[in-house]
């Protein structure tokens, strides 16, 4: 089935000669069938090789006996005119396939790619690494979930195994072979040959099990694009680090070389778009750059560059934010774009200035949105990723003292100009701070579009951290498939798992996927002593009639947040305002509708300003009648977390005002008063004994009217 490139490219006359000579010499049983399109199957072995199993196959001769067509496939894709392959070409043209294969492997042992990739391993020892021991015993851990992968009667791992939760994500991620990276690192650190030898067995198992290559776009466990590129990335360092150690057998080395053109064909012809494209095309570029001996490598690399530059223009907004608007996948895209740059650097190929400048903007977004504890945004389908070390590495590479300052909590580097709050106007993301210390105030306000992928119905969501702790949170992503997803996926994507309002029990629908322009200046303002932002959402598809929610945020730097929720409606409604607490936060209800955390080293109070009618419900870990009060820090992990639900009845348009007050002590005394309210905005006062009073104007639409006056005691 390997007819996707010019068969026997450049060697048409030689192929028949090779077949004739190798058949006479006893080397070539079954080659003709493979040349005509058969890539071999796990069951199709030559009669001469019946005496050994696939597990016992280690030498060039073993491979040639069991699967002779695979060796010829390697040569079919090589550019034998390339410098350094003279001995390979001579043996090949003489019809001595095993000798040509050995000369090729000797070439790779002294290649420049090997020099670049080799990492010195520890001296040989029997030291053990638990994570690697589990893999050797067929216990594979994917996204925190471990399971023993079954084997077939022939001894092959069941590569389609979906894990204990029957989650296809388990099978897909297993087929990316991050396990190879774990084993390689374990061998390098411990010097234990067991781990290196198992890499040989593991990759050999997969390649033989993968036949025949389907040559079509696929969503199977083995041949989906993300898995194809994942394997390339994990095989590459294993190939070059183990090729001269005796641990990666010549048979497996040749199997890898025979499988790489299949991987390249898939990535070139069946790659996806969007964020997946960045991952898949970087895999194609990896093959092209580290195995330039393939005849198509220069074409693959040129295609990769054109495609990645075009993809970056399509995926990344002018403010540097990837258009899925999901911090976790922004990091994935950035990692792929960065790795592609490194691949091009290794091949001495220059990328356009636009590409390099956009990388800097993408890193700046990760740095500027980072919480004081080093974690990134938990928004849309994100995990709570620790970005601190990534930002430090980027700060060193790009010589950005401001990123180093943020990542070190102000202990190193130079204080950023224009901070401490940052607006990303195309993404519609506002991060407010009062500084960069470990205990600084931090908040994230989402006023942007829905995103082009991994979306949640969460516009106007607000997250808050203070005193080194997450206080008000996004509930997270839980899982995409399997039992966890069946229980929580709808909840994760819904407005009910975010700090928003439900109208008559209904949440938001999908919003516009993309921004066509940045947030207007009259909707946001960052001043020296406060931040202001306002946005609205009116798509509630399950709601009878019409309603709109406008949220205006006012952060008094170093003091507190004021939230004004304006509800516009064509009929009476029940309004539920949701505030989700981090699971580590102990929550209690106080008088006059106040709900507070209870901790000796930092707290937050939710204080309704003005209205105290309605009722309050604290929900934690509930499944019925609907899911509520759960939190997922990362994929497949979840735990109960308190959700505070304020429920009120409105007869017509109305506004709810909230003071979110952080304090080191548990119950500070303070007073609030509404000075005025109308359709244009509100004015309130907040008084705290010993700190003074603030008079705050929160407009609903015009940032120019936002005003703060502090009266010092």
TrEMBL record:
It comes from the Bacteria. Residues 74-392 form the Heparin-sulfate lyase N-terminal domain. SUPFAM superfamilies: Chondroitin AC/alginate lyase. InterPro entries: Chondroitin_lyas (IPR008929), Hepar_II_III_C (IPR012480), Hepar_II_III_N (IPR031680). It is found in: Periplasm. Keywords: Lyase, Periplasm, Signal. GO terms for molecular function: lyase activity. Pfam families: Hepar_II_III_C, Hepar_II_III_N. This is Heparinase II/III-like protein. It comes from Fodinibius roseus. The lineage of its organism: Bacteria, Pseudomonadati, Balneolota, Balneolia, Balneolales.
């Amino acid at each position: 089935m390997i007819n996707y490139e010019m068969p026997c490219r450049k060697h048409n006359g030689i192929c028949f000669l090779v077949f004739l000579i190798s058949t006479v010499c006893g080397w070539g049983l079954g080659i003709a069938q493979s040349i005509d399109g058969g890539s071999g199957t796990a069951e199709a072995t030559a009669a001469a090789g019946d005496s050994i199993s696939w597990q016992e196959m280690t030498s060039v001769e073993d491979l040639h006996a069991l699967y002779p067509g695979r060796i010829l496939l390697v040569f079919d894709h090589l550019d034998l005119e390339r410098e350094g392959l003279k001995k390979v070409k001579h043996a090949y043209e003489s019809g001595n396939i095993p000798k040509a294969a050995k000369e090729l492997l000797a070439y790779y042992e002294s290649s420049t790619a090997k020099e670049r990739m080799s990492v010195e391993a520890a001296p040989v020892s029997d030291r053990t690494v638990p994570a690697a021991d589990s893999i050797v015993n067929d216990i594979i851990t994917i996204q925190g979930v471990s399971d023993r992968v079954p084997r077939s009667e022939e001894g092959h791992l069941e590569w389609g195994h979906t894990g204990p939760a029957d989650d296809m994500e388990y099978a897909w991620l297993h087929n990316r072979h991050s396990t190879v990276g774990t084993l390689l690192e374990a061998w390098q650190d411990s010097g234990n040959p067991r781990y290196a030898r198992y890499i040989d067995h593991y990759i050999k198992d997969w390649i033989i099990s993968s036949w025949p290559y389907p040559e079509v776009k696929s969503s199977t466990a083995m041949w989906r694009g993300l898995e194809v590129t994942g394997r390339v990335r994990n095989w590459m360092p294993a190939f070059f680090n183990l090729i001269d150690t005796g641990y990666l057998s010549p048979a497996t080395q040749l199997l890898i070389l025979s499988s790489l053109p299949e991987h390249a064909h898939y990535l070139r012809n069946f790659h996806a778009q969007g964020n997946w494209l960045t991952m898949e095309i970087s895999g194609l570029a990896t093959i092209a750059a580290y195995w330039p001996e393939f005849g198509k490598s220069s074409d693959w690399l040129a295609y990769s560059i054109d495609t990645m530059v075009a993809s970056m223009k399509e995926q990344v907004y002018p403010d540097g934010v990837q258009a899925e608007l999901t911090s976790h996948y922004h990091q994935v895209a950035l990692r792929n774009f960065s790795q592609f740059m490194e691949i091009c650097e290794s091949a001495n190929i220059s990328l356009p200035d636009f590409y390099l400048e956009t990388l800097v903007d993408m890193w700046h977004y990760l740095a500027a949105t980072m919480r004081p504890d080093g974690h990134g945004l938990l928004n849309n389908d994100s995990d709570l990723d620790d970005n601190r070390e990534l930002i430090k590495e980027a700060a060193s590479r790009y010589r950005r003292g401001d990123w180093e300052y943020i990542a070190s909590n102000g202990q190193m580097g130079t204080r950023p100009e224009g901070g401490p709050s940052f607006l990303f106007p195309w993404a519609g993301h506002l991060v407010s701070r009062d500084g960069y210390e470990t205990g600084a105030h931090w908040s994230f306000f989402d006023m942007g579009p829905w995103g082009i992928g991994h979306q949640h119905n969460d516009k106007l969501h607000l997250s808050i951290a203070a005193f080194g702790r997450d206080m008000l949170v996004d509930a997270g992503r839980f899982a995409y498939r399997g039992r966890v997803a069946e229980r929580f996926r709808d909840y994760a994507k819904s407005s009910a798992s975010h700090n928003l309002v439900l109208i008559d029990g209904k949440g938001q629908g999908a919003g516009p996927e993309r921004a066509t322009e940045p947030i207007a200046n009259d909707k946001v303002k960052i001043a020296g002593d406060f931040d202001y932002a306002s946005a609205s959402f009116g798509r509630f598809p399950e709601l009878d009639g019409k309603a709109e929610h406008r949220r205006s945020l006012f952060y008094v730097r170093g003091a507190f947040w004021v939230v004004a929720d304006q509800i516009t409606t064509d009929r009476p409604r029940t309004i539920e305002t949701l505030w989700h607490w981090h699971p580590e936060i102990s929550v209690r209800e106080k008088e006059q509708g106040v709900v507070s955390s209870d901790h000796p080293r930092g707290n937050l109070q939710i204080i309704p300003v003005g209205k105290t009618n309605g009722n309050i419900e604290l929900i934690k870990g509930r499944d019925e009648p609907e899911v509520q009060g759960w939190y997922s820090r990362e994929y497949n992990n979840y735990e109960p977390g308190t959700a505070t639900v304020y429920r009120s009845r409105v007869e017509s348009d109305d506004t709810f005002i909230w003071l979110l007050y952080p304090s080191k002590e548990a119950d500070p005394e303070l007073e609030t008063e509404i000075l005025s309210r109308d359709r244009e905005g509100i004015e309130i006062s907040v008084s705290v004994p010993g700190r003074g009073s603030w008079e705050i104007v929160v407009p609903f639409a015009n940032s120019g009217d936002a005003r703060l006056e502090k009266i010092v005691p």
